[in-house]
Design a protein that fits this description.
The chain has a 10-stranded mixed beta sheet, sandwiched between helices. The two termini are 15 Å apart. Helix content is 41%, strand content 21%. Helix 11 crosses helix 12. The radius of gyration is 20 Å and the shape is globular. With 368 residues, it is an alpha/beta fold. The protein binds 3-isopropylmalic acid and magnesium ion (MG). One of its GO terms (molecular function) is NAD binding. InterPro entries: IsoCit/isopropylmalate_DH_CS (IPR019818), IsoPropMal-DH-like_dom (IPR024084), Isopropylmalate_DH (IPR004429).
């Protein structure tokens, strides 16, 4: 029997509630397969800061170091509450970016997927959604503005100023391109390269390297697309996209737009892959306004489990079953209150009930 160690970082806000549902799904995977998971819970985010003075404490680092994969819930506080924590210790700067840096998780996969049967969640018209949206954004996650040098001070005119740098070397660009081309090769063999080379020198180098790497993947068609125009195209014609590759900041913004065209960021799981370690997390924040109400949909967290099964444990078929189970619950007409308004024709269920229904469906799926 295979045994995997999973660090479980439930995080802040709705994190613990949706993590609980994801863990139920992992239990079912154990029942159905010759596999066992050793869960190693650890504090991460604002909860860790309040308990230890550090949003990513050493003990959590040790647990993550030992783990075969990391399942991470959303972290962070409301804008007002974050003021209790010094800026450099806040969960995003004090935990999330250090996690990305520690494990060099340079490749971030963010599926934007909406089967036709779930089209009612989307603000887009049915004729735009057509047979459904199924694209995946590949975001470079450890370079660019996020990790460049930063400086703040008073300039010689006596004015406060700030300088942040956007830096990439060709190797950083090459490795994310390989990831994107490989993925495109397994899908529709279509890669949209997102850039801003009419303004940014970083995009000029990005595109140069992209053209070099493209030679190794002659069967993948590349379409170059300016990032601003991609934002419009995602609304007007999202089904033209299959795999999109982009640098860190563009990926942060466009992937939230991806959530927007689906109808909610709650439908956005993600995988963050490094050379030796991967972690899996929803693309959204901790939604403190709805925390503890048992109304948050666990789709993004359970979807992150599916991505973990596929990428870290080679369990692609079970991963597909998890997606199908979740989509099946929606297709049966159920939803949670964070995703659907009363009167929208769906039967409203709680976070826990959604998890239970996913488990029920999964148990009925043919074993692989
Ligand atoms: C994301 C988030 C993070 C980011 C924040 C929480 C630092 O928005 O994963 O997209 O900007 O990368
Ligand atoms: Mg973001």
């Amino acid at each position: 029997m295979k045994n995997y160690k999973i660090a479980v970082l439930a995080g802040d806000g709705i994190g613990p509630e949706i993590t609980q549902e994801a863990l139920k799904v992992l239990k079912v995977i154990e029942q159905r397969n010759d596999v066992s998971f050793e869960l190693m819970p650890a504090l991460f985010g604002a909860c860790a800061y309040f308990a230890t003075g550090d949003a990513f404490p050493q003990q959590t680092k040790d647990i993550c170091d030992q783990a075969d994969a990391i399942l991470k819930g959303p972290i962070g506080l409301s804008h007002e509450e974050s003021k209790q924590i010094p800026v450099d210790k806040q969960p995003e700067r004090g935990a999330l970016l250090p996690m990305r840096r520690r494990y060099n998780t340079y490749a971030n996969f963010r599926p934007v997927s909406l089967p036709k049967s779930l089209a009612h969640f989307s603000p887009l018209k049915p004729e735009i959604i057509g047979e459904g949206i199924d694209l995946i954004m590949v975001r470079e996650l450890v370079g660019g503005l996020y990790f460049g040098e930063k400086e703040r001070g008073i300039n010689d005119k006596g004015l406060r100023y700030v300088r942040e740098t956007l830096e990439y070397d060709e190797e950083q660009i090459r490795r994310i391109m390989h990831q994107a081309f490989k993925l495109a090769g397994k899908r529709r063999k279509l890669l949209h390269n997102i850039h801003k080379s009419n303004v940014l020198m970083s995009s000029v180098l990005w595109n140069e390297v992209m053209e070099e790497v493209a030679k190794e993947y002659p069967d993948v068609q590349v379409v170059n697309c300016l990032v601003d125009s991609a934002a419009t195209a995602l609304c007007l014609n999202p089904t033209q996209f299959d795999v999109m590759v982009m640098e860190n900041m563009f990926g942060d913004i466009l992937s939230d737009q991806g959530g927007g065209i689906l109808g909610s960021l709650g439908l956005m799981p993600s995988a963050c892959i490094g050379p030796d370690k991967a972690y899996y997390e929803p693309s959204h924040g901790s939604a403190p306004d709805i925390a503890g109400k048992n109304i948050a949909n666990p789709y993004s967290m359970i979807g992150s489990v599916a991505m973990m099964l596929e990428n870290s444990f080679d369990m692609e078929a079970e991963a597909k079953n998890v997606w199908a189970a979740m989509q099946g619950v929606f297709a049966d007409g159920y939803s949670t209150a964070d995703l659907s308004k009363p009167g929208s024709g769906v039967s409203m269920i709680s976070t826990v009930e959604f998890g239970d229904k996913v488990v029920e469906k999964l148990l009925k799926m043919p074993k692989v």
